[in-house]
Write a structure and sequence with these properties.
The chain has 96 residues and is mainly alpha-helical. Helices cover 80% and strands 0% of the residues.
């Protein structure tokens, strides 16, 4: 059940991050989900390092760290994906 929750949280965080980032992102949904999962892991690590990983009630600070990390990872990951995709398209057009 842990993997299922990780995928769901990654999917939601990735979509929220895509909605917050201005402009169009070109990464596919599966990659956005992975970026969101990485953001959740990074956010948890940051929250744990700052001592706010487990608080009474809803862990708003941990969720905020997860979201900020997901935004950064989705942004950078999409830039890398677009750069790689752009290079592939240029290579294909040169070979034809």
């Amino acid at each position: 059940m842990g993997w299922l929750w990780a995928i769901i949280v990654g999917f939601v965080l990735g979509l929220i991050a895509k909605a917050i980032i201005p402009g169009k992102q070109h990464s596919p949904l599966w990659l956005t989900t992975i970026f969101g999962m990485l953001g959740a892991l990074a956010g948890n690590a940051i929250a744990r390092g700052l001592g706010v990983a487990a608080t009474p009630g809803i862990d708003w600070s941990r969720h905020l760290f997860q979201l900020v990390a997901a935004i950064i990872i989705v942004f950078l990951g999409d830039m890398a994906y677009t750069a790689t995709l752009g290079k592939r398209k240029q290579q294909r057009s040169q070979h034809t």
